[in-house]
Structures are given as C-alpha cells and as structure tokens.
Design goal:
CATH superfamily of the largest domain: Alpha/Beta hydrolase fold, catalytic domain
CATH class of the largest domain: Alpha Beta
Shape: elongated
Number of domains: 2
Distance between the termini: 41 Å
Oligomer: single chain
Strand content: 15-25%
Length: 634
C-alpha cells in the first residue's frame, strides 16, 4: 500500500518534469534560480571555498604516443582525489580536455576506465580520469543508506553526488591551470555511476562545454516503480527538495551539446525511461534553436559500453570540441596497463584523509543560536519556521482534518475506556486511522493526549500496544501513521520506501508527521475532544516535535526518551533539517508552550530548558515520573 502510494508520487514527479518546454525567455529568466536549486540539492549551495588544490604528480608512464601522469589534488584541505591524466606525448599547443568519471568497480585501474581516457589521450585530448569515493585509491564511502544505515545523511542534506560533483569541479580547476589545456574546450563523460556524475556536473558547471553520459539515464518513476533503486547506491541521486526529474537536470545543460548513450538490455535503466527523458530535453533544445545538440544513441547491449556507443561518444567530442565531423572508425585498444603501474600513492594511502569522514562535514550544519532576549528569539523563530516550510517540509500536504471518510464504534468498555476509530484523508493520496479512547464516564469534552503509533503490530483497538496509560478522566488518540498498523511494511520494502521517499521530495518520517498532523486535526474536530496535547516516545517523539511546531493548537508536548540529535543514524530522518537546526533547537520553536519530559531531561535538551529560563518561562518545562502522572499544564 505505501509502496503503491510512493509509485504514484514518483509518477507525479516524472510526468510533470519539463512536460511543457519553456520559451527561450522563460528558460533564460529562471536559469540562475534553477542552478542554485540544483546546487542546493547536491549540498553545494553556497559553493565551498576554492582552496589550494595542492596538485601533485607522483609519477609518469611514457607509452610512446601517449603519456600517463599519476596525479592527486585536494578538493577541500586534507581530502585527496586521485586520478590518472592521459595526454599525447607531443603537444604543440593547448588541447581540448575530457574529464572521465568512473562507475563503481575498481576505479581508474579497471580495464574500461583505462581504455576510454587512453583513447582520448591518443587522439589529441588531455583526459583526466578520477577515482570515485570508496573505490580505487579514493577513501570514504558512498553506501550510506544502502549498506551503512546512515539515515542521518538525509537529515544532513548530504549525498555523495555532491562530493563527486565538487571533486569534478575542482578537477576542472586543475585542468584549467595546465598550459596544455584549452579551458574553453572541456567536456565530461562517464559510464554507469560516472554517467550520473556527468549529468550532475554538466548541470552544475557551465565550464563543461560537452556532456556525454552513458548507461545511467532514466526517471524517478522508473527507478522507484521498477525498484531499480534497490540496485543503486546513494551517489546516483540528489536530495530532491524541489521534486526534479532528469529532464530538469538536462534543462541546465542546455543548450550545450548533450549526447546520451544507453543499452536497451540494461536492467537498471529501461528504454521507456531514457527515451522519454531525452525526448523531453530535446524539445527544449528545439525551443532554443539547437535541436541537434541533444541526441540519443542506443544499442542492443546490457549495462555497459558497446563499440557503437563508444564511437558515438568519441565522434561527439570530436565534433563539438575539435570541430571535426570526420567519423570515428578506430575503437579502444585491448591493452590493459597493470594496475600497480597506475597507482598514484604506490599502495600506501594518505593517513587522516578527510575524504574518510567528509559525509559528516561536507554540508555545513546550523549552529545553535545565541539568544539574548525574546525579540531576538522571535526573529530567529520566524526565519527558522520559514526555512523548515520551504525546504524540509516543502511538500507537506494540507491537513485540515476535514476529510473524515469513515467512523466506527470499536466496542465495549475496556480498561475504563470506549474505543472509536476515524479514517481520514491525509491529503496526499493516503488515508490513515485515528484510534480514539474516551473515558467511559465523562460529562463533556475531555483533554486528549495524541501520539503516533510506532509498533508495526499495534492492535487497532485504541492503538493498544502504543497507547500510553494516562490518568483517569483523560482521553488518548493514537494515529496509525503510514508504515504502522494496516500499512505496515516488511523490512525489505520499508528500506526501498525510505530510500525512495528522498527521490520525490520528502522522507518517510516527514510523511508520518503529516499523518500525525492530519490525525490531530481529525480528533480535534470531534465534540468529545477538548484540548489536544502531543505525546511521543523514542522515535515517535521526533514526529511529535515537528507536528507541534506546525500545529499551534497543540497545547503541550509530552516526550518520553526522545532522540537527542538528527546526527544519530537511528533518529528519524527529515531532509536537510540539520542545515536549519537540530532537535533541541527545533523543539524550542514551540516556545512558550509547555514541554513535559517523562523521566529525566536528556542532556541535549538542556539547551531548550536554558532558553525557556532565559526568556522567563522556566516553569513551562517540567518532568513527571510516568505518563500516568501527567495532567495538562494550565
């Protein structure tokens, strides 16, 4: 059920992407804003400082008609990027340059990733091939959510795509600095993951005059609905705050020459997706008067090169970087350089390479604000709320609680309560249940503690396993957020959904927060319910915090064992939230509403407590021994 909903979301993203090509004026007027959005989705806005590259050539190989230089540079201080540069042995003037980006095998020493830049070096180009993160001699890792459970990457707004693009941009800086390179004639190509990076770099940096991705072109709809995402690591995708699809990326490459090559037997990137992508991008090129600058060449081949695809790429660069329309007839050679000959560091990698931990530092995190008085706090609060609404929760559906589709009386008195269920429309194509428990004896509307279900097997009656034991006379309402109760998922599909949500503009916990908000509004619309406070325990405390931020009718927050930071991979992920604020600072956005902690106040929330004290409301943060000791603050 949740996966089907995600597929519908992906269809919405892909089907609307560049559906109507803009006019030349519209395209030009929005270009700067769209490029800024693209860099932001890569974690590259604002761009990092261009520090000294410290470029070093550690050795050369003379192979007669071409030379290989073993080179490394630092894309940020202390973070090493190794590569091999292929160039003609005899150079009489500046040459066109090709940046070759590898997929996910052994990096630059892999036979195809030697052969292609070598062809360029033998045919009048300077070609630089880089090792991607985690492969070859490059350190770090790019399998964060794929293998490492690093869900905090999404909260950080971090994708390895951003680092790979930055490494490639710094590689362009290096190429520009060389006397043998014509900086006005630089292009990029790559296979598989290198194809993804070719798209990304071409959109990010206009110095790239010619782009040729291979075997890595498709749509969000295809990678999600076909579950091809299960075969891709994190560096294939961006943090999709703005719900882009590949044609939107192509619109940033236009009108520069773009050649897409693809295999029709590629199991990861299907023909229906890459054909539609190129079709939509080419319609824009036509509007710009350069339809022939966007082409698709395909072959009946699996994921990888074929002679037809390679020669098409070589001819593309000859035409657009050399001005030659002579057809390319010679393909790559069979020669394979022994791997050890191409090693930049000679088998001993740099110690303390910052690339090992760049995922924790690359995207700057927001710092806790220094607050002197209420006026300063209110200014910070207003700016932070606006940022949350326009980035992390940009696509939050309207949750006005006016869409109850079904109501049930679930049964007799049990544990002093009568049980009811209300199904409501969340506003994004999903429905959810609110499981309400009212006191058997009541004389009017009662205060209600509302929370999100957590256990996948929560019994529907009152949300029994998750429902807190409250004092007599109080009501509870447990919201069956997606992924729990009737929409629970197995471990495998849950992993797919969590990773896939990023590709359509939000996270699964963000959508669960929307469910909680819709449930709150639904419960609040009932005559039997008076004030509504929010309760969260462990992971669901995160949902409660953000729901309270956006619903000012929540009278109080009750938190039991809340996570202390989004930097913890086990904390529910919210896209890019650490760029805005961490949990203790974001919790304080509900000031001056009361906050009750069940048990001790976790250390990180001492910041929240001190803020309340500084602003004159120390009494509005309190503790209780158990939820049954809680009563609404007045």
């Amino acid at each position: 059920m949740v996966f089907d909903w995600l597929c519908e979301q992906s269809r919405a993203v892909s089907s609307t992407s560049l559906a109507i090509p803009p006019t030349r004026q519209q395209w030009q007027d929005t270009l700067a804003r769209r490029r800024e959005q693209w860099l932001e989705m890569l974690g590259l806005w604002p761009l990092p400082e261009r520090t000294e590259l410290q470029a070093t050539v550690t050795g050369t190989l003379d192979r007669g008609d071409y030379v290989v230089e073993k080179v490394h540079f630092q894309s940020v201080p202390g973070a090493y990027v190794p590569g091999n540069l292929y160039r003609p042995a005899n150079i009489s003037g500046p040459l066109p340059a090709v940046l070759y980006l590898c997929g996910h095998t052994k990096g630059k020493v892999n036979a195809p990733y030697q052969a292609n830049p070598r062809w360029f070096g033998q045919h009048g180009y300077v070609a630089l091939v880089l090792d991607p993160i985690q492969l070859g001699e490059a350190q770090g890792f790019h399998h964060g959510t794929y293998h490492q459970g690093r869900w905090d990457w999404l909260s950080r707004g971090y994708t390895p795509t951003g680092v790979e693009v930055w490494n490639a941009m710094r590689a362009l800086d290096y190429l520009e600095s060389r006397d043998d390179v014509d900086a006005q004639r630089m292009g990029v190509t790559g296979l598989s993951g290198g194809g993804s990076m070719s798209w990304a770099l071409g959109a990010a940096d206009e110095r790239v005059r010619c782009v040729a991705p291979s075997c890595q072109t498709g749509t969000m709809e295809q990678v999600i609905c076909d579950r091809a995402i299960d075969g891709h690591c994190d560096c294939t995708f961006w943090i999709n705050y703005y719900r882009w699809c590949t044609p939107d990326v192509g619109a940033l490459i236009a009108p520069r020459p773009l050649l897409v090559t693809a295999g029709t037997d590629d199991t990861l990137w299907r023909p229906y997706a890459f054909r539609e992508t190129v079709h939509r991008v080419r319609r824009l090129y036509e509007k710009l008067g350069v339809a022939d600058n966007c082409q698709l060449v395909e072959d009946l081949t699996p994921h990888g090169y074929s002679p037809r695809l390679r020669k098409a790429i070589f001819s593309w660069f000859d035409r657009h970087l050399k001005g030659s329309d002579e057809p390319v007839t010679d393909d790559i050679t069979d020669f394979v350089e022994p791997e050890e000959n191409l090693l930049v560091f000679g088998g001993k990698l740099p110690e303390n390479d910052r690339m090992q931990t760049i995922c924790d530092t690359f995207v700057p995190m927001a710092q806790a604000p220094e607050v002197a008085d209420l006026q300063q706090w209110e200014a910070h609060r207003e700016a932070t709320l606006e940022r949350l609404r326009t980035l992390t929760f940009r696509h939050m559906p309207c949750t006005d609680g006016g869409r109850i589709s079904e109501a049930r009386v679930d049964g007799a008195v049990r544990d002093g309560g009568v049980f009811y269920s209300y199904r409501f429309d969340v506003g994004d194509g999903m429905s959810a249940w609110a499981r309400l428990t009212l006191p058997a004896e009541r004389t009017g509307a009662v205060d209600t503690l509302v929370g999100a279900m957590h256990l996948a097997r929560s019994h529907y009656v009152g949300g029994r396993e998750d429902r807190p034991s409250v004092a007599p006379g109080l009501a509870t309402a447990m919201i069956e957020v997606r992924g729990t109760g009737a929409t629970q998922m197995g471990e495998g599909i849950a992993w797919t959904v969590r990773r896939g949500c990023q590709l359509v503009g939000f996270s699964l916990p963000e959508r669960q927060t929307a469910d909680l908000l819709g449930g709150l509004a639904t419960v609040r619309s009932l005559d039997a319910v008076a004030a509504t406070a929010l309760y969260g325990k462990g992971p669901t405390a995160v949902l409660a915090i953000y729901a309270a931020i956006f619903d000012e009718e929540v009278t109080e927050l009750v938190l039991e064992g809340p996570p202390e930071s989004h930097t913890d991979p086990d904390t529910p992920e919210m896209l890019g939230v650490l760029r805005i604020g961490d949990l203790p600072q974001n919790l304080a956005l509900i000031f001056p509403r009361p906050i009750t902690f069940v048990g001790e106040i976790p250390a990180a929330y001492g910041w929240t407590k001190r803020l309340y004290e500084k602003l004159g409301h120390a009494d509005r943060i309190r503790t209780v021994a158990s939820v049954s000791d809680w009563s609404a603050a007045r």
